[in-house]
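Lecture 7, part B: from sequences to assemblies.

Below are the input chains for today's worked example.
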Amino acid sequence: MSTLTAEPRKTRKRASAPDRASVLYDVPGPRAQMRNTVLTVLVVLVALFAVYVMVTKLDEKNQLNADLWTPFLRGDVWVNLILPGLFNTLSAAAVAAVIAVPFGFVFGIGRLSDHAWIRVPAGAVVEFFRAIPLLIMIFAVMYGGSAVFGLTVTPFMAVVTGLVLYNGSVLAEIVRAGILSIPRGQSEAALAIGLRKGQVMRMILLPQGVTAMMPAIVAQLVVLLKDTALGFIVSFEDLLNAGARVLPSNFNNIIPAVIVIAIVYIIINLIVGAVATWLERRSRRSRKSTAQPVAPPGAVVAPGTGEVSAVD
Amino acid sequence: MQALFDEFPVILSAFWLTIRLTLASGFMALVLGTILAGMRVSPLPVLRGIGTAYVNIVRNTPLTLVIVFCGLGLGLVLDISFSTSLSTNYLWLSIIGLSAYTAAFVCEAIRAGINTVPLGQAEAARAIGLTFFQNLRMIVLPQALRAVVAPLGSVLIALIKNTTIAAAIGVGEASLTMKTLFESHGDAVVPIFFGFALGFLILTLPTGLLFTWLSKRMAVVR
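Predicted structure of the full complex, as structure tokens:
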């Protein structure tokens, strides 16, 4: 076990999660090994019992009948019901992301402006949309759009608008943190050689800041993708709608359908999350930036892996 | 504007439900999240595996799906009931969904906090013969929890906002009440929206300030 070797303190701090955790207990001796084996068997037994209870409960309610699960083996179910939902989910996420990222840059940089008339409104917008629930925004766009502006608001528009305002505001905080994470000397030096404020931002701060904020931006995009599921509440025909409305109304199989849909969501999010982790590692190694990677506001950085999980 | 005053009692009771949802799910998520964090740093690989799997599955599932599963799957299909009153039953089902989801984030926060405890602390604890469990309970967790007051505050604020998703299974908290008021007062959409937005600002902003203050107060000086 590496915990007992005399490594320099810095490398020990960076040890991976299991190594770090092992500080909490000794390398097991014969008695501890025996006890651990007994406990492992016990845990496995308890887990198996829990699974048994779940399976019996599902079976009691006839949820394990083959006809509830076989639809997922049919091509037409995927092509006609699940994939269109997935397509809508992904397009809402893509459109929202494409608008939210520039929104984040504009408001993030706006909050750092020297002029109060830009800084204060930008700050107010960001703080407001971060503090109120996304669903409140989606409802407001849905009803307000038609009642106040006389527009026909589709669920897609309502979901995308809500996602842009909320995630754009969080992205603004990421952008701000990314720019602030660059050592002051950088912009001081740039100003000293005669660059203007705009040039400092464009040529010195942003290129390095983007490297530092990339992983956080991608982590926030996982949140955005997950939040598209809120569209279900305003009848947006997304992936969750396919799993919780369309499939059950055809096959009366809500539990199997929701489980299958959840697996699809998890796979997509794990892929996006893996990209974030890869970017994080890369920018940690990178010499292109003087700044360390930043995390989304309120996010938790997992020990060891450095994986960022945005709180939402 | 008049609509807001007329419906004030309705709005107040909707927010009271939001607060109760937050407190109940927050408490359950804290307990479950601490247990999960303990599992993830435990000497048993099986426990670590179960904890890791739970966090990764739950964190990558949309909360709306979790709540819909609790309401329709657990409630309607599996007949899991906590109360004979239908609305109370859905309330509890949504609390289960909210706590199960939030616990994954609490777990990650606490695990990050455990990482801030200096190595020497845990080594000293082991040296005087404390077991894993004693070490965790008496030395590591108390310091870890104090270090993660601010992240836990962020999780709580996210939870306050997330309680609105209970609307997906018809729990009449603030967001669903706002939607109902939109339908009955079509001419007052803007004031109603700002009224509810203000309600959430009143809940989230002071919570943020409180936890920032607390985290400074509780910080372990090293």
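Note for the exam: Residues 16 and 89 of chain B are 18 Å apart (CA to CA). Keep this in mind when comparing with the next example.
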